[in-house]
Amino acid sequence: MADADRFDVIVVGGGHNGMVCSAYLAGSGLRVCVLERRPILGGAAVTETFHPGFRNSSASYTVGLLSPKILRDLHLADHGLRILERPLANFLPLGAAGHLQVSGELEATQRAFALHSKRDARRLPEYYAMLSDVAHVWRRLLHQTPPRLDGGPSDLMDGIRLRRQLGDVPLTLRRDLLALLGRSAADLLSAWFESEPVKAAFGFDAVVGHFASPYEVGTAYVLLHHVMGEVNGKAGAWGHAIGGMGAISDAVAAEARARGVQLETDAPIRAIEIAQGRVKGVRLDSGRFIEAPVVAAAVNPRYLFLELIDSAHLDGELLRRIRNWKCGSATFRMNVALSELPRFDCLPGAGDHHRAGIIMAPSLDYMDTAYQEARRDGWASRPIVEMLIPSTVDSTLAPEGAHVASLFCQHFNPELPGDLEWDQVRDRVADLIIDTVDAHAPNFRRSVLGRMSLSPVDLERRFGLPAGDIFHGALSQDQLYSARPLLGYGNYRGPIPGLYMCASGTHPGGGVSGIPGHNAAREILSDQRSWWRRRFRLG
């Protein structure tokens, strides 16, 4: 076999996590190859032209969870990555009730809340403090490898280590953490606020990419998941990557190449090959075999275990549970080319609200109804729509005077009732989403020059997201931390020697964070060092 087809590590999947993993490994001297099936690197974090003269982030669409440590370690700013914070976090058009703005500044948000509830405005600082304190505790665990919890002797040491990390957390904060891990978003928010628009402004985070009612137990954690990041040092903030989300992937790829990683596109994998009980390499669809003693899978767990590995090498218990791995964000994603900015009935002029996350879902009950209808009928008659207009801060995305809008929409069931298929109804649903925006901004439909529509099925076909799941698996309590993807395999190591996992189906879950790739690389390098120590002693 030629040396060109022999590496220390093969990373399957060229999404941002796979490339982050490869860059850390190569930076420690390993010879690494990344194999991506699509003609473009970045997975769901890519920027593509969708209409002549208009380009935008195709799937992932906003920055907030990207790890500051990875930004520094991989010198992403030196590779051109620039992120701008949104001047407003969220803007909710409310029809006859006016609107609600959530600012990055506490006092401005309190003034906006006071128009709907003076009590809620007074309670806001305390709520923010609670959420910040809980997020700070949980952030300690993001870059840590979860304990396996498989009943082995390492469990004791893992428990002691975790106790030391969390030992200084006061009882009151532990109670708040438990509430965010075990309650519904509706219960949590109703304990703090009385105004429906205020609860909706925060509750939207609990259903983003999560096919559930905000009244469902566990959705409070999804809310927490979305506030654990930061932008330019500001905790909980969200922003725009100049050049779209593909700018993040481009910067990571540039650093990986600089460290010697071989990045290959148009390289779909047929199988991960196993011999004598351990990983030997990968076989491409072309028939080409690439040898490596270590394979890091930057793909979702369902695809890894059910498609890429011969079931003869896996036990039945694992296969049964992976078949039941809960997936399906119920997300419908659109990019729209616009001749002009939307003019909202409640705030018609141009302003900072055009640079916010524009949320069209005025109450938790609205979100619950959308979920119930999607479960029964396939999609909601009044869907939840979040719109961002990145061209308001990034003029490279659209011609002068025109704009691009990202529409991230919930709830759209991956499995439609009866004989319906998403290819049959995609355009009808896209029209419904346009109408939903048009109800708040009556110039919207006539300003549409072109659009790209991606149903949950399209997201799976195009980006490998199972049932369109943007998180590679639901963020439910039974699929978090040590149980992501399964108890016994929550430490990034697979059931076969030499197999590792480094995508969002591992801790800490989905979003463009890079943390699964970072953590998996650390464990691979740790095992490599252990192997060399054992070899030295035996020699």
3D architecture notes:
- This protein is an alpha/beta fold and 539 residues long.
- It has a domain at 3-46 and 60-82 and 243-325 and 467-538: FAD/NAD(P)-binding domain (3-Layer(bba) Sandwich), CATH 3.50.50.60.
- The chain is built from 17 helices and 21 strands.
- A seven-stranded mixed β-sheet has the order 7-6-17-18-19-16-20. Strands 11-2-1-15-21 form a five-stranded parallel β-sheet, with helices on one face.
- α1 (16-27) runs parallel beside α10 and α6 crosses α9.
- Mean pLDDT is 93; it is low at 533-539.
Features:
single chain; 19% strand; alpha/beta; FAD/NAD(P)-binding domain; 5-stranded parallel β-sheet; 539 residues
CATH class of the domain at 3-46 and 60-82 and 243-325 and 467-538: Alpha Beta
According to CATH, the fold-level topology of the domain at 3-46 and 60-82 and 243-325 and 467-538 is FAD/NAD(P)-binding domain
Distance between the termini: 28 Å
Return Rg in Å. 23 Å
* Tally of DSSP helical segments: 17
Strand content: 15-25%
Shape type? globular
